[in-house]
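Anyone have tokens for Dihydroxyacetone kinase, phosphoprotein-dependent, L subunit? Sequence:
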Amino acid sequence: MVTKHQIIQWLQAVATVLEQNKDYLTELDAAIGDADHGINMNRGFQKVITQLPKVADKDIGSILKTVSMTLISTVGGASGPLYGTLFLRSSAAVAGKQELTEEDMVKLFQAAVEGVVQRGKANLGDKTMLDALSPAANAFAQAVDKGDSMLAALQQAVKAAEQGMKNTIPLVAKKGRASYLGERSVGHQDPGATSAYLILQTLLETIG
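Reply: yep, here.
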């Protein structure tokens, strides 16, 4: 089970991790984007942690919905709508719940990926956050199908996200600002895939 308390701890930890990696994410984005991904994500999650005390007594779905609304209103660029949609779809998948089973988490991950696909119109291999998220969701679902524990399934998800993130390096960007560079986007790791990996890794660390 993942408890509501762990979800709040995870979101607080994400704010810390994104602050620590703000310059790194912005550096990655400087190579192929607007050089603001780290700054934007940090600003969004610093705002998120100010909102968490207001929803601490609410269910997990409500907490994730608050994260969504906060990110949409504070994060610039493409990341705000994409991460906002990710958390919004996640919140709908676990509405009313105080704790999450492995099956709940499968639904949450699948809903998150579907939201990002619909919002960003991206496919796997387009050099976006989806390249980390989609393999992670699939790996988690496969592990749960095999009867793995929450922790073991999350470990598989994070491993798949890390590989997916690294796989963006040789790709040509097909979406967003990076797509304007065409072949020149090759050789650079996608910042969105990197922030997605960091967020998932932080979830594993919080629950582990």
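The chain has one domain: 2-207.
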